[in-house]
């Protein structure tokens, strides 16, 4: 029994982290968000709602500066204030914003948003277990190796989710009569909008696929729907 103690502790640690993270995220979103009221965007989300046979799609503004979209574990869709400001400044079109909303709807519909919270706790439990185990055999380096291995697993899972949400968005945009064009043009702008410009960690450690890979995948999915 004693030999399994580190794994049990890691699992408990992961659960506690998950619970507090979920609570903290929900509280922050409640405190820092409100419903988006934009007639142009609403006209587009109404078209997507009709395609999904939904009465409406509620979109919320999350009052933070980074350019991003978010699907919360409870199924709510958020656009950050920083992203909305780029739209208001004319740097992003309404159709391109609609593609972001469609992408986040994909995360909700495919269960990614809720699963990511569970994955987060699992990743922390895995990291803790690896640190304990590898630390016994490779003192010092074991902790670094555990962090690298866990980050690689997390990044791979996240990239898979992004491709799936992109595919969902492509289908929804085409069905809504908006088309996949705005989805592709947005990706050509995102690196500048988020100030990344191709810099950062290697592709295999990124939580999102490279821009050209995502556009290629979108075009392949688009061909299936319009071909």
Describe the overall structure.
The protein is an alpha+beta fold. It contains 8 helices and 4 strands; from the N terminus they run αβαβββαααααα. It has helices at 5-31, 39-51, 81-88, 94-109, 112-137, 141-175, 181-193, 211-226; strands spanning 33-35, 59-62, 69-71, 77-80. A 4-stranded mixed beta sheet has the order 1-2-4-3. A hairpin with a 5-residue loop joins strand 3 (69-71) and strand 4. The model is unreliable at 118-122 and 200-206 (pLDDT under 50).
Helix content: 55-70%
Which class of secondary structure composition applies to the elements? alpha+beta
Radius of gyration: 20 Å
How far is the N terminus from the C terminus? 59 Å
How many H/I helices?
Answer: 8
- Which residue ranges are poorly predicted, with pLDDT under 50 across at least 5 consecutive positions? 118-122, 200-206
Sequence of secondary-structure elements: HEHEEEHHHHHH
How would you classify the quaternary structure? single chain
Question: What sort of overall outline do the alpha carbons produce when their principal axes are compared?
Answer: globular
What topology, given as strand order, has the largest sheet? 1-2-4-3
Share of residues in strands:
5-15%
Number of strands: 4
Mean pLDDT: 78
Largest sheet entry: 4 strands, mixed
Short description:
The chain is built from 8 helices and 4 strands, in the order H-E-H-E-E-E-H-H-H-H-H-H.
């Amino acid at each position: 029994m004693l030999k399994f103690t580190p794994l049990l502790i890691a699992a408990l640690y992961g659960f506690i982290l998950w619970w507090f993270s979920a609570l903290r995220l929900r509280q922050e979103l409640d405190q820092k968000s409100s419903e988006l009221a934009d007639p142009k965007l609403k006209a587009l989300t109404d078209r997507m709602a009709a395609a999904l046979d939904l009465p409406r799609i509620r979109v919320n503004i999350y009052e933070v500066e980074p350019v991003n979209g978010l699907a919360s574990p409870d199924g709510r869709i958020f656009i950050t204030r920083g992203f909305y400001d780029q739209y208001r400044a004319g740097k992003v079109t309404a159709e391109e914003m609609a593609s972001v909303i469609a992408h986040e709807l994909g995360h909700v519909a495919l269960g990614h948003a809720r699963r990511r919270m569970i994955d987060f706790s699992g990743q922390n439990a895995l990291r803790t277990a690896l640190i304990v185990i590898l630390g016994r055999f490779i003192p010092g380096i074991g902790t670094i190796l555990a962090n690298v291995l866990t980050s690689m697993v997390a990044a791979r899972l996240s990239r898979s989710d992004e491709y799936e949400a992109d595919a969902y968005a492509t289908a929804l945009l085409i069905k809504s009569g908006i088309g996949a064009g705005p989805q592709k043009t947005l990706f050509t702008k995102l690196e500048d909008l988020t100030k990344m410009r191709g810099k950062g960690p290697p592709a295999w450690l990124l939580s999102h696929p490279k821009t050209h890979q995502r556009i290629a995948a979108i075009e392949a999915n688009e061909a299936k729907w319009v071909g």
